[in-house]
Fold:
Amino acid sequence: MPTYKNTSHSAITVNGILFKVGENVQTEMIISHPDLDIISPYPLFNPLTRFHTVFGDGTNEEVILIDTENTKKIKIFRLLAGNLFIFLENTSNHPPMVLFPGKTIEIEVNRNCSQLVLYFSVESSCLIEEISHFTKYHSDPSSSTNVQIDGGTLVLSPSENHIGEVGGKTTTGVFEFVRPDDTIDYDPNDIVSDDTTGITLMEFDIGRIDGSTGYITKALLLTDNPACFSSFAIWLFNSPDIMIQSDNDPLLLLHENREKIIGSIFIDELETGEAGSDSAWNFNADVRISFHCLSDSTKIYGLIQTLDGFTPIANQKFYVTLTAELN
Structure:
C-alpha cells in the first residue's frame, strides 16, 4: 500500500471524535460501503477537492466526478472490485462530508490540512457495524492524540469512545423440529429427533462473529403434546459433524465426539397448563455453560435425549430456545 504523510498540523473530526495530527503522521480513514457520495458545500465548478484512485499496483488514475443536477453532490460512480484508495487534496477551507445510505459522516479538516487519505473496501457493505474496519490511526507516540498505536494495537485514551461492538450482548437462538410419523414408545435415554435413519441436529445461530465465545444461561423446551411429562437433556456441540444415532435409538457417548461436545442441559419433567392447553414445557435458567463457536461459524448445535421415556404422538413438535451471554 502506498504511504502518505501529512506534514502540516491539522485536526480531523469523525463522528464527533477529534483526531489531532502532528508532523510526519500517516492518517488512514477506512470506510467500507459500495456506494459513496462526497458532499461539497459548493457546486463542482468550485475547485474544492481533487480525487485520484491509487490502485494496489501503484498506478494513479483520476476519478470521474459528477455534480448531479446541481445538488452539490460529487459522486464517484466508478467503484472497482477490490480495494480503492481515495487521495483527497483539500483546496478550500470548507469541509467535505462523506454520505452513505442512511448514515452521514462529517469529516472536518482545518485550513492548515493539505491532504487526507481515504481508503475504501468495496467488498464490505458494513460501516458503523464494523467500526474496527472503519478507522485506523498511525501516529508518533509523542504526538498529541486520543488514539495511539501500542505495539501494533489500536488504543483509545480513557473515554466512552469505543471501536467495534462492545461485548456483553445477550442473544437467543431458536430451533423447532417435527419427530417421525409414528407412535413408537421411547425408552429412557433414547434420542428424540426428526428421522429414524439420519437425524438433523438442531442449529442455534447465537454468535456475534465467527468464532464467538460466551455462556449458555438458559434453555427452554416446549412440545405440542400436553401429555408428554418426560424430563429431557439437551446436548450441545460446536460442530454438526458428529457421530450420532437416529430417532428412538439409545444415545451413545462416543470418544470420537470428544472435541465437539460443549455440554448438556437438563430439563425437569415437562408441565402442562390448565384444561384446554395443547402443549407441555419447562426450562432451566440455572446454567452457565461456556461455548466456543468454530472459527468460521456463529452457530452451535444440539439434540434432545429423553431421560424417562414417553409415548409420543405422530409428528410431535419440539421447540427449543437457548439464551446466551456473548463475550
Observations:
- The chain has two domains: 10-156, 170-326.
- Residues 1-153 have pLDDT under 50 and may be disordered.
- The chain is about 0% helix and 45% strand.
